[in-house]
Amino acid sequence: MRSFRRLPLAITAVALLLGAPACGSEDDDGGGPVDPPPPPPPVQSLAVAGGGDNVAERFTSDLWVHGSYAYSGTWGSFPRDDTPGNALKIWALDGAGAPTLADSIIVPGISTMSDVEVSADGAVLMFSAEGVEKAGLYLYSLDDPANPTFLDSALVGPGLHTATFGEIGSGRYAFTAKNAPDPALLIFDVTDPADISLATTVPIPADYGIHDTYVREGLAFVFAWNTGVIIYDVGNGIRGGSVSAPVEVGRAVTEGGATHNGWWFHNPVTEEKRYLFVGEEGPGTVGATASGDIHVLDVSDLAAPREVATFSVPGAGAHNFWMDESREVLYAAYYNGGVVALDVSGTLSGDLSDRLIDRLEPGGDGDTYTWSVMLANGSLYASDMISGLWQLEVETTTAGE
Length: 401
What we know:
This protein is mainly beta. It contains no helices and 30 strands.
């Protein structure tokens, strides 16, 4: 039986504030009813529920879950057992959500499937590909989710590092990161997934290129390594930009640089859209070491983002995020650090180390190098480069239970 490495819970302390006398109280001595103290925050712990040790011949890359199926890519910049990352893995999820490998699609001429996503309506599977011969953007129909069928591709040399769907107006677009030596944000019109067309090209300063994009409410956040985070209006209206003519809104360089990915947090509790979480990808060795922190930008003024907080895991590095906005929890894939759950409620400032809720290395020590996480169907799924696809259970209780 595998021994899973569990890190201790770190629960943010909560001050119990005495409420003021109720409005309209006629008691002169202040002895009237008081507001009850706020409830303690939920305690969320992570546990392995299924999957794992299920991809041995390749390194696993990104993942996406939709309905009763999951899809994961493979990475092969440094091939595992001399096998390129040219396989799309198709996973059937059982009634409890545990994944079982159902099939694979092999795409000749590529070395890495670097990003995987399913459209919001579940109709189209998209992945970006890197390599020499057939790198670019690929779309597949999910009319039969167990058997994706090819629709169209747009070949881009030397490849696309990531691809993100964006619904703008009545159209659907793919926001993609073209690799160096001529890095650019390429936006493809994929409204008709059987007929991909290039909508526009936005050159990015050639400082290693773009690593990821995040699209929400007509804004595209581009994470461009040491150039920093660049925000474009692509249909929001704030600067009159559009998909065919993006207009820059603002930018910021995070401390430490190496800007990789991000998530613009829409907090349903406070109704704020104040924070942008940014992942920094520092130097590392697959399966062994990683580095890079989480940086928090205050984007209340989108034209002038400013860094207000950071979080780090000593000896490990951040990669991709998923946010449970309703519970105000950020989940981060932390390479050799596994999966991190971070409390992001309230006002954020300074060092967020006391916001750590839990951390779990799903493959155990030495068999964990987590690429991505996604919350779906009540489970948290994690793709691990070394040990494959995992289903994690998020156990939520109230302090004192």
